[in-house]
Amino acid sequence: MVVFDKPAGQDKASRDYDKARTGVVKPRELHELVRGNIWKLDPYSCARDEFKGREAHVFLDANESPYNAPYNRYPDPLQERLKESLAKVKQVPTERIFLGNGSDEAIDLVYRIFCEPGVDNVVAIAPTYGMYKVCADVNDVGYRTVTLGDGYQLDAGRVLDAVNAYTKVIWLCSPNNPTGNDLDRLEVERILQEFDGIVVVDEAYSDFSQLPPLRLFLDHFPNMIVLNTFSKAWGCAAIRLGMAFASRQIIDLFNKVKYPYNVNTLTQQKALEMLDEATATEGRVRQICREREHMLPAMEELPICQRVYPSAANFFLAKVTDADAIYSYLVDKGIIVRNRNRVQMCEGCLRITIGTKEENNELLAALRQYESECRKKKTT
Ligand code: PMP
Question: How many angstroms separate the alpha carbon of residue 104 from the centre of ligand 1?
């Protein structure tokens, strides 16, 4: 469903005219996209920013306690050591990295930086990750949805048709949650080229996909923000660490608006440890992908399963005979999956995360048992 709420304004009309005449979309300048108050914002200056770069051993500048080291000290507000390590692993220069309290922080910041409450809107695919809409609602920003097509695929033309003069951001998620598929890369690129605002591509699950990650193409698309997280492939959902990769100018805006000490010391330390052993994470990702290759056909064989959608993520979507009943049955067995029965275009579906081999086998056994109990009930 494409919902239009406001007529296109003069700027949009003249841009459309230019596009029709020349076939080229003129990107809006960053200052045209950023909220006026944010563009002018004088950011908070941390105590430690002021002496930066020089040696010191007595710190009486931040009203910290002198006891209980090292936790008495505020964390590095720009997480420099962590970004240096991340830059090597992610192949993105430090000045193009923002770190936040989960990628959920970056999602909220996108609204606070670019979208004028009560005026601007965003366009997002549907179904997709729920926080894009929650943050739009919190920030009083219009949220327009464009449903995915067959096989949950992206149609760039329909997304671009949903844009009006007040559209600042387009939200894409690839591999998409909850559908699990990669969005067609050519369609994503068309949106990046033809939309004159910001395009966020949430690649929370890209470590499980064969497609090259879009963060490696920041130079090609100055209007792109790519999101990554430590919560999935890195196995660190507890530490709350999310990443945004974008042009230096966009990252500067994130840093200006974020809370000064948004990533705590324990998180920074743990993330550094994980990055030092990045090969261990790569091994776990390979293991999860192997399990996925085993789980999808195993699910397809179950008579309660009507369809298993292809997945490039660490989860998959399965259409089953009775999603609510099967969900409750599994809960009674102590197995929790995500019931997506009430999500538009996911009716009758469960979203199932790939676990360890033992967990996956336990799930399959429980589903077989459900089925045999159903059969028994029918015959008695
Ligand atoms: N993006 C997507 C697509 C997700 O599915 C999730 C969490 N399920 C997030 C972002 C949030 O990640 P984080 O834990 O880094 O806030």
Answer: 6
